[in-house]
Design a protein that fits this description.
Layout lengths: L2 H22 L8 H38 L5 H22 L11 E7 L4 H21 L2 E9 L5 E9 L9 H4 L4 E7 L10 E11 L14 E6 L15 E6 L4 E5 L5 H27 L18 E4 L4 E4 L4 E3 L2 H5 L4 H19 L4
Parallel strand pairs: 4-9
Antiparallel strand pairs: 1-3, 1-5, 2-3, 4-5, 6-7, 7-8, 9-10, 10-11
Helix pairs in contact: 1-2, 2-3
C-alpha cells in the first residue's frame, strides 16, 4: 500500500465519511428518502474502511511504543511480534477494502428471464428460475415486482421482466449480488411432457442490468419512441382487461422493445417502462464503450443457445455447476429454493480477486 494512498487518498475518505455522518444526522436530509438512502449506502461503504484505518493507526502507535519499551525490557518483544502480525492483517484488510468497486453495486436491478430452446419445458424452467430468484430475494428482504410477462400453456413463462429492489442503506445493493446471473442457464431433467422418461436438455436466458434513473442514463428523444397501449392480461385484480392500461414502448433507433402491464394506470405503466428502457439502453451503451476500448469483461449471453451456458442444473444428480468459476455442488434442490449464497459467494470471490489483480501495480 503506497504512502500516497494512505495519506492523501485516505485523508479524503476520512473527510468524506465525517461529512456524510454530519449530513445524515440532519433531519432535513431525510425528507428526500432517495437521497438519504444514497448517502446512507455510501456511508455504510466507507465505514469499514474508516474503522480499519483507525485500527491500523492505533496499532502503529502501539508498535512504536512497544519498540521503545523492548529496548529496556525484552518481555515486550513477544508483544511486538503480535502487534506486527496484527498490523499485517489490518493492511491486508485495508487493501481488500480499497479495491475499486463496481459503481453500480448499490443499485437495484431489472431482471428478465426468457425461454429458449426446449419449447414448453424451457418455459417451465424459466418459471423455476424466476421462483428461485424470488425466494432468494425474499430471504434477503428484497422486493420483487413483475413488470410484464407472457405465460406459457403449462404455467411457465415465455418471457418475464421484474424489478428487484432492496430497502435500507446496505452498500451492497441487488446488483452486487445478481449481476453474475446474466447468461444462458441450462437444465437437464425429464420434462413433464416426456412420456418415455428420457432426460432432455433445454435452456432459458437471463438478462440483468442495474436500474438507472433519468439523471444517470442515456438521453432519450421522445421522437425516437413509438408508444402503443393495449389491454392488460393476466392476474391483477378488479379492473384488469377492462381498459387499455398496458404500455409497450419501442425505441426506434435500436429496436429495443419494453412493456409494462403491472400497474393500474397507463401513466404508471409508461413511467415504469421508461425506467426499463433507460436501463437497457444504458447497459447497451456501456457494453459498446467497453468493447471499443477493448476492455475485458464477463459479458452476458444475449442469445438463448444451450451450447453457450453459464450454469447447468442437473436434476437427476441434484447437481448445479457454474462453468465460469468451476463451482459445483450437489444441492440443486436447495439452490432452486433460493439458497444461492454459496454459488454467488464463489462468483463474488473470483470477481474480487480479478479486481485486486488489476489494482495491483505490475499485475
Amino acid at each position: 500500500m503506497s504512502t500516497a494512498r494512505t495519506s492523501t487518498g485516505m485523508d479524503d475518505l476520512l473527510a468524506e465519511h465525517a461529512d456524510l455522518e454530519r449530513r445524515l444526522a440532519d433531519p432535513a436530509v431525510h425528507a428526500d428518502q432517495a437521497r438519504a438512502r444514497q448517502l446512507g449506502r455510501r456511508y455504510a461503504e466507507l465505514t469499514p474502511i474508516v474503522d480499519t484505518q483507525r485500527a491500523l493507526t492505533a496499532v502503529m502507535g502501539d508498535i512504536a511504543t512497544a519498540r521503545e519499551l523492548a529496548e529496556e525490557d525484552e518481555s515486550f518483544r513477544d508483544e511486538l511480534v503480535s502487534l506486527e502480525q496484527r498490523r499485517g492483517e489490518l493492511e491486508d484488510r485495508l487493501r481488500h477494502l480499497l479495491v475499486p468497486r463496481d459503481p453500480d453495486d448499490d443499485k437495484d436491478v431489472i431482471l428478465e428471464v426468457k425461454a429458449g430452446e426446449g419449447g414448453e419445458e424451457s418455459a417451465l424452467f424459466a418459471g423455476d428460475l424466476l421462483r428461485m430468484y424470488s425466494r432468494y430475494a425474499e430471504k434477503r428482504g428484497w422486493r420483487v415486482e413483475v413488470l410484464s410477462s407472457t405465460e406459457s400453456d403449462l404455467g411457465g413463462y415465455k418471457d418475464v421482466t421484474v424489478t428487484v429492489t432492496a430497502p435500507g442503506s446496505d452498500p451492497d445493493g441487488v446488483w452486487a449480488w445478481l449481476k453474475y446471473e446474466g447468461g444462458v442457464h441450462r437444465v437437464q431433467r425429464v420434462p413433464v411432457t416426456e412420456s418415455q422418461g428420457r432426460i432432455h436438455t433445454s435452456a432459458a436466458g437471463v438478462l440483468v442490468y442495474p436500474e438507472k434513473d433519468a439523471v444517470e442514463s442515456v438521453d432519450i428523444d421522445e421522437k425516437d419512441l413509438r408508444i402503443d397501449v393495449y389491454r392488460s392480461s393476466g392476474k391483477g385484480g378488479q379492473g384488469v382487461n377492462t381498459t387499455d392500461s398496458a404500455v409497450r414502448i419501442t425505441h426506434l433507433p435500436t429496436g429495443v422493445v419494453v412493456s409494462c402491464q403491472n400497474e393500474r394506470s397507463q401513466l404508471q405503466n409508461k413511467a415504469r417502462a421508461m425506467v426499463v428502457l433507460r436501463s437497457r439502453l444504458q447497459a447497451m451503451a456501456d457494453e459498446a464503450e467497453e468493447a471499443q476500448a477493448s476492455a475485458e469483461r464477463r459479458s452476458q449471453v444475449r442469445t438463448v443457445d444451450r451450447s453457450e451456458r453459464v450454469r447447468t442444473y442437473n436434476y437427476p444428480e441434484n447437481r448445479i455447476s457454474d462453468h465460469r468459476v468451476g463451482y459445483k455442488s450437489h444441492d440443486l434442490d436447495r439452490v432452486l429454493d433460493g439458497d444461492l449464497d454459496a454459488v454467488l459467494d464463489a462468483l463474488r470471490a473470483a470477481d474480487r480477486a480479478e479486481r485486486m489483480a488489476r489494482a495491483t501495480p505490475g499485475s
